[in-house]
Write the structure tokens for this entry.
Amino acid sequence: MSGTLFVVATPIGNLEDLSPRARQTLDTVDLIAAEDTRHTGRLLSHFGLKTPLFALHDHNEEQAVDALLAKLNAGSNVALVSDAGTPLISDPGYRLLAAAHAHKVRVVPVAGPSAATAALSVAGLPTHRYCFEGFLPPKQVSRRARLAELASEPRSLVFYESVHRIRDCLADLVTAFGADRNAFIGRELTKMHEQCVQAPLAGLLHMVDIGEIVAKGEFVIIASGTSSAVTTSINAEPLLVELAAHLPPKVAAKIAARVTGGKPNELYAHLLELNKARED
Ligand code: SAM
């Protein structure tokens, strides 16, 4: 009989967020597959646990999966953890889980923290439907193209962002979604310097520029989805493109906004993105 693969969420900052069940699972499995064995080693020693660790990260996943499957098939119980939060949520583990299902290994989630759900829970933005977008492309051209694709998404959008790109990312969000789109930044969630701020995108950018939102640590950005009025305007893309073929972009955006009830600045930004994507 094969062993069980437990997928265990670990804290995203505050170590008290490790659930008793997660702790017990990490204590009793035969092996813990960890993204970074040194990092997880520190978590284990904090809780006085001595379970053996096995490295499983993006660069060795293929070979590591074979070794872990062999152990599971031989009856060992294995826990999968990442450095922080829930494995597979912008973290390694996909291949292992796919292989476990293919080999009929029992998989068990040990649910717990994730930066995305922590942020959604306090953002004060619509959460009945949302899209997890994870990390945007690091290069500006690709990032802008991705955001242009998402500009008409009606669901709230959840992004992970690194400290190095937080300002550029917000600036691109303002361009793509418009200055007034309501949004949220969760910084250093569950940690000592936690910040949770909801404001229009341009306001968040300004707060980063003046240091009110400190550009240090880890960030989740949530942008609310486009409103129904904007949906109407973005759906008017063919009209916008047709008008822009004959008129200056600002005039095209203004007329398209008048016809569809959309916002001229958002349509103008959308048009610039379309032109840029075409040039790229
Ligand atoms: N698997 C993790 C989860 O469930 O949230 C996410 C791992 S991903 C590699 C790391 C990113 O998650 C960070 O760059 C940041 O965007 C976000 N993140 C993780 N911890 C965070 C925290 N305490 N506060 C805000 N964002 C955090």
Residues 12-13, 82, 84-86, 89-91, 114-116, 160-162, 186, 188-191, 218-220 surround S-adenosylmethionine (CB under 6 Å). The mean pLDDT is 93. The longest helix spans residues 264-279. The CA atoms of residues 32 and 177 lie 42 Å apart.
